[in-house]
């Protein structure tokens, strides 16, 4: 809890060392760097490199969107990412703030509180999230003087992809077209295309992305469910979270029931994975795919 | 005779095309779009067979049968429902500008649905329509309660409805703001997408709408009598209250079903009855029928055009946002052609009177309050990292952490924004002789926001100066449009305000379409639209303060004009005021003030509407004391709003403009219910 970490009087003592108890912040001080991450993708990368951030926007939603790697306890809430609380930033006195081009508008503001570095994965022009994550991970590691940790993470991610590819091939799934979506409601999905993190992982684990339409630079398209009929995909994976009444309403739709993957009974639910994440999310997605796809008996 | 239903077009000959011709014209447009879309979907032909008996092995036939066809049917059903609902509301309230949109019913239903989705998803198990019905009924109940004292004078009802609607929309925006940006479903719903994958929505709508339509048919005779004065109706042995209540219930139910099934589809309910009336539908039965048919044809045509566009640009466009995009200009065209009941027209005037004694003391007191608010706001805040001393910390100047340097610019910007808006509101109210005029209600704020939007999307990097220029230009353009409407409609206050709503709806629609595109600039735009003072630096805040002070210093120069204008054009001219030049100058003043304020606190705050009233309530009625009083009150509201927004949900921050509208909208409604001097 932040309240246990800080004993401040009238805001006057912000300059004094903040007494720390067992928390992420404490480890940070030992590691010598107090990092604030403005983005979940960067935060998960930091955690995997052994340098968890001291503060994040809305850490409570981590469990809903990211899940893995687990967030260390005691991370300070900055509010929203578009308007992080500057008073908290001032009191935290971080050594480094890491952010993304999405928040370029507030980058000059953040720079008033600590040296601020921007790492670009999801930004125009449309690109490949996995490759860009590799580049960004190297840059981040270099900025922190942890090149080794960065290289190790990239190697782990490659190994994870290779392992998933082997498993899926063994299950006879190599080259199968798969759709990856989030349900926005019972009528609309966000479908992840080429260049999205999920699309890149699908390719790397030997599957084929069933969505071939151009996407935006986040890698997704928002479409009505009828648009999925144009896809040759024989499987659909959807990610949590999903609204309680969505599945029931879908079942009532003849068009939904007529879709090839629904008819074949190959609609697969996956736990939440950060769709706009970096390598740790790519690894999680690959592992979840293996777990839920290779487990099924395949005859199509 | 205050009979809205029998209102006739101002210039009868060219516009009396006949309702059938109108529906036919729209229908041809819808048919052309349908043919174009089907030709894209099923190049081989065999359209009817594909829709009725699709071959399950041919995907495009399934698409035609389970997506295209039900969507077409829903567009017809929803359009008819909204057209009928609008006509019933207009008849019941004897108000030619009543509609599900302008009475806040749609926003209320939508807010109920959004809150249920977030907090009580279990409620949805009873059926979405019950949730939306409750929301819609609550909204209209509040609106009618608040306008009861005026005898449901059309303008009062619509003002209450609009403000209640905007209030609900603000609350829904706040919900969306606190939801993570990963979640876009709420926006889609609010924007009214008609994308479908089966017949369950038409099957949901059809029986419910049929029952409601049947109820409307049963109410036809009593409804026709409602067009008369209450006393006459009563003498015919009709329980006016019961008929009104039943008819209102039918109209709200029609709207609630549509919102529950496909979301908010703005302006059909306003445009369809108005068009039907202009086309010449007079008798109540014919008019209700024509309204439903026009609504159906209008939404059909719009939705087919949307699908053509979506096919061309490979981008999903929510139909509901587009109806508002088309509906708003349509409304601007209709407004001068509507004949309003004479009882309502021209009955508004800024109440002049002698100021209560010692305005100076009151102004001083307000100034002292403002200074106190500013001091508290810049020095006090929740302790950023702990909970000592009840979780509050005091940041004094000289404090090494210099937290007050983060707070003061925000507070100063809020102060400047409030001042500018209040002054713009005062000037507009006196200029148009309309106590409900204000930059927010007249679409001037929306114009400023629109100008800024265009600048953000057309120019890669915009400087603050460019933003100010673009916003000023937008505000000025909006004012010019309004004044043209005012000139054509002889400055009738209802028309001006209605034109303002239309301009505001145009902006909302534009932003909705941009939001649905997923462009992150749209998210930033939305963030700014809610009126955030976040991150303003000292120089921007200082410049805004200087601008506000300069404006206040200029006011004595125009004092005489502002005193003369409420007396009427002839009086003002007779007393030697150069009307044309004076008006233009005042307009530019209001436009620039609004533009500057909109950049600081967004277009939503209601301060420009509320502050002048509050000043007059305090007895500050002479031009200068009213202006300065309103300026102080406006500043006070926004400084307080900024402080609350910064501290209440710490570390989360609510935008000052949105918090001000949370304060301003109920204050305005309360004022409206207390001070109904209009009828």
Automatic annotation (TrEMBL), chain A:
<feature type="domain" description="Fe/B12 periplasmic-binding">
    <location>
        <begin position="34"/>
        <end position="297"/>
    </location>
</feature>
<comment type="similarity">
    <text>Belongs to the bacterial solute-binding protein 8 family.</text>
</comment>
<keyword id="KW-0406">Ion transport</keyword>
<dbReference type="InterPro" id="IPR051313">
    <property type="entry name" value="Bact_iron-sidero_bind"/>
</dbReference>
<dbReference type="InterPro" id="IPR002491">
    <property type="entry name" value="ABC_transptr_periplasmic_BD"/>
</dbReference>
<protein>
    <submittedName>
        <fullName>Iron complex transport system substrate-binding protein</fullName>
    </submittedName>
</protein>
<dbReference type="Pfam" id="PF01497">
    <property type="entry name" value="Peripla_BP_2"/>
</dbReference>
<keyword id="KW-0813">Transport</keyword>
<keyword id="KW-0732">Signal</keyword>
<keyword id="KW-0408">Iron</keyword>
<keyword id="KW-0410">Iron transport</keyword>
<dbReference type="InterPro" id="IPR006311">
    <property type="entry name" value="TAT_signal"/>
</dbReference>
């Amino acid at each position: 809890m932040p309240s246990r970490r800080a004993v401040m009087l009238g805001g006057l003592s912000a300059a004094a060392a903040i007494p720390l108890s067992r928390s992420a912040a404490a480890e940070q001080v030992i590691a010598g760097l107090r990092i604030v991450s403005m983005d979940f993708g960067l935060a998960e990368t930091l955690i995997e490199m052994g340098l968890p951030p001291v503060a994040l926007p809305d850490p409570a939603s981590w469990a809903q969107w990211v899940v893995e790697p687990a967030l260390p306890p005691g991370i300070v809430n900055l509010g929203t990412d578009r308007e992080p609380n500057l008073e908290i930033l001032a009191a935290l006195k971080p050594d480094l703030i890491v952010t993304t081009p999405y928040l370029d508008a507030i980058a000059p503001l953040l720079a008033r509180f600590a040296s601020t570095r921007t790492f670009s994965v999801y930004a125009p022009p449309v690109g490949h999230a996995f490759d860009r994550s590799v580049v960004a991970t190297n840059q981040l590691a270099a900025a922190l003087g942890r090149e080794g940790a960065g290289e190790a993470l990239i190697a782990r991610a490659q190994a994870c992809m290779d392992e998933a590819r082997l498993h899926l091939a063994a299950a006879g799934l190599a080259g199968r077209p798969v759709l990856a979506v989030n349900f926005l409601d019972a009528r609309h999905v966000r479908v992840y295309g080429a260049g999205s993190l999920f699309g890149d992982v699908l390719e790397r684990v030997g599957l084929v992305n069933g969505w071939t339409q151009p996407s935006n630079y986040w890698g997704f398209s928002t479409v009505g469910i009828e648009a999925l009929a144009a896809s040759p995909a024989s499987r659909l994976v959807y990610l949590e979270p999903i609204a309680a009444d969505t599945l029931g309403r879908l079942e009532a739709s003849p068009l939904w029931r007529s879709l090839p993957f629904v008819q074949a009974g190959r609609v697969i639910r996956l736990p939440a994975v950060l769709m706009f994440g970096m390598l740790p999310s790519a690894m999680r997605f690959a592992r979840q795919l293996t777990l839920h796809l290779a487990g099924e008996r395949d005859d199509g | 005779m205050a009979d809205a239903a029998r209102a006739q077009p101002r210039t009868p000959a060219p516009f009396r095309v006949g309702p059938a011709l109108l529906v036919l014209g729209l229908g041809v447009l819808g048919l052309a779009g349908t043919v174009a879309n089907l030709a894209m979907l099923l190049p081989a032909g065999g359209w009817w067979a594909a829709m009725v008996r699709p071959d399950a092995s041919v995907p495009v036939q399934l698409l035609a049968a389970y997506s295209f066809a039900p969507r077409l049917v829903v567009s017809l059903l929803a359009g008819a429902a909204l057209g009928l609902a609008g006509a019933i509301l207009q008849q019941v309230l004897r108000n030619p500008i009543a509609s599900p949109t302008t009475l806040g019913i749609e926003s209320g239903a939508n807010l109920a649905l959004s809150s249920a989705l977030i907090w009580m998803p279990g409620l949805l198990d009873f059926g979405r329509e019950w949730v939306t019905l409750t929301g819609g009924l609550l909204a209209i109940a509040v609106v009618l309660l608040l306008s009861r004292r005026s005898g449901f004078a059309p303008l009062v009802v619509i003002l209450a409805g609009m403000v209640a609607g905007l209030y609900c929309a603000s609350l829904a925006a706040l919900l969306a703001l606190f939801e993570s940006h990963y979640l876009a479903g709420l926006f889609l719903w609010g924007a009214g997408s008609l994308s479908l994958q089966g017949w369950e929505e038409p099957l949901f709508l059809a029986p419910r709408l049929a029952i409601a339509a049947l109820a409307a048919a049963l109410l036809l005779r009593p409804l026709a009598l409602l067009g008369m004065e209450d006393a006459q109706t009563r003498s015919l042995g009709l329980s006016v209250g019961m008929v009104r209540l039943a008819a209102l219930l039918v109209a709200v139910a029609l709207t609630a079903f549509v919102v529950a099934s496909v979301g908010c589809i703005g302006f059909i309910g306003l445009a369809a009855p108005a068009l039907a009336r202009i086309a010449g539908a007079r008798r109540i039965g014919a008019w209700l029928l024509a309204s439903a048919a026009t609504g159906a044809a209008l939404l059909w045509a719009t939705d087919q055009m949307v699908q053509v566009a979506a096919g061309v640009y490979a981008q999903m466009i929510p139909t509901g946002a587009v109806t508002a995009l088309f509906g708003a200009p349509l409304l601007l065209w209709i407004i001068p052609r509507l004949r309003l009941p004479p009882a309502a027209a021209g009955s508004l005037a800024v109440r002049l009177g002698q100021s209560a004694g010692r305005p100076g003391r009151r102004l001083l007191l307000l100034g002292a309050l403002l200074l106190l608010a500013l001091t508290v706001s810049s020095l006090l805040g929740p302790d950023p990292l702990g909970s000592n001393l009840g979780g509050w910390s005091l940041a004094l100047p000289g404090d090494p952490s210099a937290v007050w340097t983060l707070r003061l610019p925000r507070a100063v910007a809020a102060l400047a924004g409030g001042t500018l808006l209040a002054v713009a509101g005062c000037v507009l109210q006196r200029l148009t002789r309309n106590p409900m005029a204000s930059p927010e209600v007249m679409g001037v704020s929306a114009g400023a926001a629109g100008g800024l939007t265009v600048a953000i999307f057309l120019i890669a990097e915009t400087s603050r100066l460019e933003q100010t220029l673009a916003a000023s230009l937008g505000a000025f353009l909006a004012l010019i449009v309004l004044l043209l409407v005012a000139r054509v409609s002889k400055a009738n206050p209802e028309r001006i305000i209605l034109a303002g709503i239309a301009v505001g709806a145009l902006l909302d629609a534009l932003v909705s379409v941009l939001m649905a595109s997923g462009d992150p600039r749209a998210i930033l735009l939305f963030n700014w639209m809610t009126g955030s003072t976040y991150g303003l630096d000292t120089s921007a805040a200082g410049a805004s303060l200087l601008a506000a002070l300069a404006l206040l210093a200029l006011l004595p120069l125009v004092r005489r004009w502002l005193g003369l204008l409420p007396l009427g054009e002839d009086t003002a001219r007779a007393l030697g005021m150069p009307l044309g030049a004076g008006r233009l100058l005042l307009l530019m003043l209001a436009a620039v003030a609004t533009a500057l304020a909109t950049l600081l606190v967004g277009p939503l705050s209601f301060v420009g509407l509320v502050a002048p009233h509050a000043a007059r309530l305090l007895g500050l009625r002479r031009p200068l004391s009213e202006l300065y009083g309103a300026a102080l009150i406006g500043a006070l509201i926004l400084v307080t709003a900024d402080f609350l927004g910064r501290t209440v949900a710490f570390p989360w921050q609510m935008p000052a403009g949105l918090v001000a509208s949370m304060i301003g909208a109920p204050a305005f409604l309360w004022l409206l219910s207390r001070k109904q001097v209009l009828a």
